[in-house]
Amino acid sequence: RLGIAELIRGGITCFHDMYFYMEEVASEVEASGLRACLSTALFDISGNGEALLAQGCRLHKLWNGESEGRITVQLGPHSAYLCSPEYLREILIEGRRLNCGIHIHLSETADEVSDSRKLYGCTPVQHLLSLGIFSLPTLAAHAVHLEEGDFQLLSENGVSVSHNPGSNLKLANGFAPVEEMLNHSINVALGTDGVASNNNLNLFEEIHLAGLIHKAVK
Question: Does position 167 have pLDDT exceeding 80, yes or no?
Fold first, then answer.
């Protein structure tokens, strides 16, 4: 509720969110009058992947299209490093059944890319493409560490990127190659990430940071 109040104070009328307790978030969105696209965070490394996926599908059944269409629901595999290939395929099957999009963290850290190459012999972008994830409308959070071939793959598959400069700075993850993304006609949005990774939900601060950072970092 406090987060939504902060968004309203900053003039935000619509937001994407992927984490836990999304049914409670949906109730607050309904009461607030905002629009939101919500996703339950899905991962199977803890052994409860099936239960989380069931929660994500339940959220879609209960809330997608509700509040005069202000609330939409996607599936939210947290990331390729917290979701096994088999689990991502299950999520894809459910996403096609529900005819919904995907919200996922992608290439946020250098270690994520390095580990993907060790495990799968390719970048996280190439890995998700090979699994068919991008066949559904996809919002990729961060996309800080993209390699040369990744840009064209994201562009060709219509993947949107949420650029979170404040979070990237706080977590010391680096500087997203926004100019190159734009040069490849990738749709780049601005985000805050969660407050644990940022401290606030002030999108004007993100505008300010993005405007300054990318004048100095190519």
Answer: yes
